[in-house]
Amino acid sequence: MQVIATHRYAKISAFKAREVTREIQGLPAVDALQQLAFIPKKAAPLIAKTLKSAIANAEHNNNIRPELLVIKEAVIGEAPTIKRVRPKARGSAGPVRKRNSHIRIVLTDEVAIVRRSDKPKTKSSAKPKAKATKEVPASAAPAVDEVTETSVETND
Fold first, then answer.
1. Is the pLDDT score of 79 beyond 60?
2. What is the model's pTM?
3. Collapsing DSSP states into helix, strand and coil, what is residue 20?
């Protein structure tokens, strides 16, 4: 079952908030909350608040335990931009754009929980594949008459 929570008109640029949501995508909800507590960005508490709301929705409305929930989607969309004007030199004015965003988190209990530390390491467990060599018949191979050694002398 999917559970959705949204935070609309958050006072942060969507570009800045997407950095944080990329880090928690696909994590178990409880682990994501712990990780968000240590991210030093303005978006982290806003996303954590939305994630707590989604967990509370799952517990209250659908009777799902928080340990079973996985973040299926964490999407940051752009909200309407507030446009202001700032005075500039010689009586001119420059635009100020105060960007907002919508935070949407979708939790599900249908996906198996896989922690990042439990995943098998692909580099060490993968065996190198042998290269396919083409066999050349002895009659087609070039004959080598002599092997000569050359030495190079250097003046130090």
1. yes
2. 0.71
3. helix
